[in-house]
TrEMBL record:
Membership in a protein family: Belongs to the VAM6/VPS39 family.
Membrane topology of the entry: Peripheral membrane protein
Name of this protein: Vacuolar sorting protein 39/Transforming growth factor beta receptor-associated domain-containing protein
PROSITE patterns linked: CHCR
UniProt organism field: Candolleomyces eurysporus
InterPro entries cross-referenced by the UniProt entry: Clathrin_H-chain/VPS_repeat, Vam6/VPS39/TRAP1, VPS39/TGF_beta_rcpt-assoc_1
Pfam families assigned: Vps39_1
Residue span(s) of domain Vacuolar sorting protein 39/Transforming growth factor beta receptor-associated: 450-550
Length: 704
C-alpha cells in the first residue's frame, strides 16, 4: 500500500478520435483545454501493469519503468478498461471507432473519388485486443446482440440506435468470462428498462488458435500458445510445430529467408516442403504455387470468393503468361544487372523485389548511377543461398545416419525404387521428425531430395562448386538434373555425376557425343580411353561395348585400354575380344601378358604360338612380305626360347606346312635330331645352320 511516482513517455503519435487535435497535448495544457481522462490500471502479468494515459496505454514493471517498447494506441481515452488474460478489454465512447470497410475501393479508382471521412459507430464500443501482440482482435458495438445492420453510420437518415453507458465488472483473472453492465444514456429509458448485465465468455483455446491461424496471424497464435499450459491444451506440442512452420512460410514469403530456414532446421522439417517454396529451376517437380504454400504446410486452404472469380481468372491468365520456367531462370542467371532482376520479378520469389524496384536508367544517367550505387544483390539469389545453408546442414547428418543402416549411394537402387518413381504426394507426406525416428526408406528420400536440390542450387549460384559435388558419392537423382547440366553444357560435371552413380553407359555415351566436336585425335579419344581404363572387371561387358568405336577410329590408341595399370581385367575374355577385332591386337596383348605380367599359364603360351603361326600363314598367303617376316621371326624366336608351350601340339599344326626352319626347331626340341638336320640340309639347304646344329647333339657328332 505504498505510492510511487511513475513517469510515462510523451505520446509518439497523435490519435484520431474525440480528442482530435488536442490528443498530442499533455500535462497542464490538457487540463486547461478539456477534462482530463481518469487514469486506469490493470494487471497484465505477475510483474507488469497496464496504465492508461490519455489515448495511450503503457506497460510498467515493479521498478516503475516501462517493460515494453511499444504501447497501446486508442482512438480516444477509454472509459473503462480491464484485463482478462490474455486480452485487454476497453470501453470506447460513441463516435470514436471507425467501422471497418468490407471491400475497400480499387486502387485504380481511388484517385478519381474525393476523400471521405471514415464512418464511425454511433454507440459505445467494447474493444478487445491481445495483451501479447497488442493487436485488436475484436470490436463489439453496443447493443451486442444487434445484427450488423443496426449500427448506423453518422450522416444517414436512419434512426440512430440508443446508446448506453458501459461499465466493466472486474472478473477473477483465472476465469474465462467477463461481466459488463449497460445502462441507457437516456434517463427515461434507464428508468423504464433498468440496467442489463452482459456475460462475455471466451471461446475454447483451440478455436481461438484456429481463428488466428486462419487469419494468418501466426506470431499472435504462437504468443497465445506459449501462454497456455499443456494441461489446458493437450495437443500443444503438435500445434506449436504446425504454427511455427506456417509462420516460417509467412516469413519466407516476406523475404525473411534466414529466419524461415532457421525454423525449418530447428523443426527437422521435411526437406521436400522446404524445397517446394522455390521456383521450378530449384525444386523441379516439387514446385508448388504460392497460393498453395500454406495448405502444404498444414494451414487452411484458401477460400475462393465468388465476387472475385473474374479477377482470379484474370490473375491466373496473367500468372500463366508471366511464370518463369526453369530453363528461363537458368538462362537469366547468366544475364547481368537489371535484366536479371526484371525477369526474376515475374517468378514467385521475384515478386518480393517489387517493393524495392530498381530506378529507371536512361542513356545519359546510366553511367553516373552505376558509379554512384553498387548493384543490389537480388532476392532470388539470396533465397537460394539460404536454401544451400539448409541443405548443407541436413546433408552430413543424413549421410552418417544412412551409413549406420547400411545404405550407400551405390546400393540404394538395389533396395528401393529411384526418387523419380516416387509420387510427389508421397514425398510431401514424409514426416517432419528427427532423423533418428525415420525409417531407412524415409532417410533415403530425404537424402535424395537434399542432394538433388543442392545440385540445382549450385548450378544457379555456385556453378564452380558443381564439379566437387559431382566427384563425391551423393544421393542426387540424375533424372532431375541431367537436362539442366546439358543445357548449361556442364559436360564434365555430368560425366562425374554419371560415374558416381555407376551409370557408366551414359557417361561413355556422353564422352562419345563430346568427341564429335573435337578435331585432334588425342583430344577425341583420350577422355573415353581414360574412363574405360578405370572400370573394373565387373564392367567388362560395358568396356567391350564402349571400346568398339574407339577401335574403329584408332586401334593403337584403343589398345591402351587393356594394358592399363589402374585395374586388371580377366585376360581370357580380353584376348577373345581382341582376336575378334584383329588377331595382331591379341598377339600384342598376349606378349604384354607374358613379358610384362609374367603370365605362366600354358594356355596363353600355346595361344600366342598358334597366333604367330596363323598370322605367318596368312601373311604368306597374302604375299605380305613385311608381315610374313615379322610374324615368322617372332614364331622362330618363341619356339626356340620358350619352354611353356606344348611342343607336340604346335608341331602337329606345323607338320603339313613348308615352314621348314620352324619344323626343324620343334623336331630338335622333340629329340628327333636326324629329321631336324635333314630339314636344314635338304629342305633349307642352310649348311651353316646344319653345322651349328651338330655340335649341340653329341650323337650326331659321333655319326658325322
Amino acid at each position: 500500500m505504498t505510492a510511487v511516482d511513475i513517469s510515462t513517455p510523451l505520446p509518439t503519435t497523435a490519435s484520431v478520435g474525440a480528442m482530435g487535435a488536442f490528443s498530442g497535448l499533455t500535462g497542464y495544457m490538457t487540463l486547461g483545454l478539456m477534462a482530463k481522462p481518469k487514469p486506469m490500471a490493470a494487471q497484465t502479468g505477475e510483474s507488469e501493469v497496464l496504465i492508461t494515459k490519455d489515448t495511450q496505454g503503457f506497460f510498467i514493471g515493479p521498478d516503475t519503468k516501462a517493460t515494453r517498447s511499444n504501447t497501446i494506441e486508442w482512438p480516444a481515452p477509454p472509459e473503462e478498461m480491464t484485463v482478462l488474460k490474455p486480452y485487454i478489454f476497453s470501453v470506447l465512447p460513441a463516435g470514436t471507432v471507425a467501422i471497418p470497410q468490407a471491400d475497400p475501393p480499387p486502387a485504380s479508382t481511388s484517385t478519381t473519388q474525393p476523400s471521405q471521412q471514415p464512418n464511425l459507430y454511433t454507440t459505445s464500443v467494447l474493444q478487445i485486443c491481445s495483451s501479447l501482440s497488442l493487436r485488436v482482435t475484436q470490436t463489439l458495438p453496443f447493443p451486442f446482440d444487434a445484427p450488423q445492420s443496426s449500427t448506423v453510420p453518422v450522416g444517414t437518415t436512419a434512426p440512430p440506435v440508443p446508446n448506453a453507458n458501459l461499465r466493466l465488472l472486474t472478473s477473477s483473472p483465472s476465469k474465462s468470462r467477463l461481466f459488463l453492465l449497460s445502462t441507457p444514456t437516456d434517463r427515461t429509458a434507464a428508468a423504464a428498462e433498468g440496467s442489463t448485465i452482459w456475460e462475455i465468455t471466451m471461446k475454447p483455446w483451440s478455436e481461438q488458435l484456429d481463428e488466428l491461424v486462419y487469419d494468418g496471424q501466426y506470431p499472435d497464435a504462437l504468443a497465445l500458445l506459449d501462454s497456455l499450459d499443456e494441461a489446458t491444451l493437450p495437443d500443444k506440442p503438435q500445434r506449436r510445430t504446425r504454427i511455427r512452420a506456417l509462420n516460417a512460410v509467412s516469413q519466407f514469403r516476406a523475404g525473411k529467408f534466414d529466419d524461415a530456414i532457421d525454423t525449418f532446421i530447428d523443426l527437422d522439417f521435411n526437406p521436400a516442403k522446404v524445397v517446394a517454396l522455390y521456383p521450378e529451376a530449384v525444386s523441379g517437380r516439387l514446385a508448388v504455387p504460392v497460393e498453395k504454400w500454406i495448405p502444404l504446410h498444414g494451414g487452411p486452404a484458401p477460400v475462393e470468393d465468388d465476387n472475385k472469380s473474374m479477377a482470379s481468372t484474370d490473375t491466373k491468365e496473367k500468372a500463366s503468361q508471366e511464370n518463369t520456367t526453369a530453363a528461363d531462370l537458368l538462362d537469366a542467371v547468366a544475364e547481368s544487372g537489371s535484366a536479371l532482376k526484371n525477369r526474376l520479378q515475374k517468378s514467385a520469389l521475384g515478386m518480393l523485389m517489387a517493393n524495392n524496384p530498381a530506378p529507371p536508367k536512361d542513356d545519359d544517367t546510366a553511367s553516373v548511377v552505376s558509379k554512384r550505387k553498387a548493384p543490389r544483390h537480388d532476392e532470388f539469389h539470396r533465397s537460394v543461398e539460404t536454401l544451400v545453408r539448409f541443405l548443407t546442414d541436413r546433408r552430413p547428418k543424413l549421410g552418417s545416419t544412412l551409413d549406420a543402416v547400411g545404405i550407400t549411394p551405390h546400393n540404394q537402387h538395389q533396395q528401393y525404387p529411384p526418387l523419380s518413381k516416387t509420387a510427389v504426394e508421397d514425398l510431401f507426406a514424409l514426416p517432419d521428425a528427427p532423423l533418428s525416428s525415420l525409417t531407412p526408406e524415409q532417410l533415403l528420400r530425404y537424402a535424395q531430395i537434399v542432394d538433388t536440390a543442392l545440385y540445382k542450387a549450385y548450378l544457379i549460384i555456385r556453378p564452380t562448386l558443381l564439379s566437387s559435388l559431382c566427384r563425391v558419392a551423393n544421393w542426387c537423382e540424375v533424372s532431375e538434373v541431367e537436362s539442366d547440366l546439358r543445357s548449361r553444357k556442364k559436360y564434365l560435371e555430368l560425366k562425374d555425376l554419371y560415374h558416381g552413380k555407376g551409370m557408366h553407359a551414359k557417361a561413355l555415351e556422353l564422352l562419345r557425343e563430346i568427341s564429335e566436336d573435337e578435331t585432334d585425335l588425342e583430344d577425341k579419344l583420350d577422355p573415353s580411353i581414360r574412363y574405360l581404363q578405370k572400370l573394373g572387371p565387373e564392367h567388362i561387358s560395358q568396356i567391350f561395348e564402349s571400346a568398339r568405336w574407339i577401335f574403329n577410329t584408332d586401334k593403337d590408341m584403343a589398345f591402351q585400354i587393356f594394358i592399363s595399370e589402374d585395374v586388371e581385367l580377366p585376360a581370357q575374355p580380353v584376348a577373345d575380344y581382341l582376336e575378334k577385332i584383329d588377331p595382331r591386337l591379341c598377339i600384342r596383348f598376349l606378349e604384354h601378358l607374358l613379358e610384362e605380367k609374367g603370365e605362366n599359364s600354358t594356355d596363353f603360351h600355346d595361344r600366342l604360338a598358334a597366333l604367330y603361326l596363323s598370322q605367318t600363314l596368312v601373311a604368306k598367303k597374302r604375299g605380305d612380305e613385311d608381315l610374313l617376316r615379322g610374324m615368322y621371326d617372332k614364331l622362330l624366336k618363341f619356339i626356340d626360347t620358350n619352354d611353356k608351350f606344348g611342343i607336340d601340339r604346335l608341331y602337329g599344326l606345323l607338320s603339313s606346312t613348308d615352314l621348314f626352319e620352324a619344323r626343324a626347331i620343334l623336331l630338335g626340341r622333340l629329340g628327333r635330331h636326324d629329321q631336324a638336320l635333314e630339314l636344314y640340309v635338304y629342305r633349307l639347304q642352310d649348311y651353316r645352320k646344319a653345322e651349328e646344329y651338330v655340335p649341340f647333339v653329341p650323337s650326331l657328332m659321333l655319326r658325322t
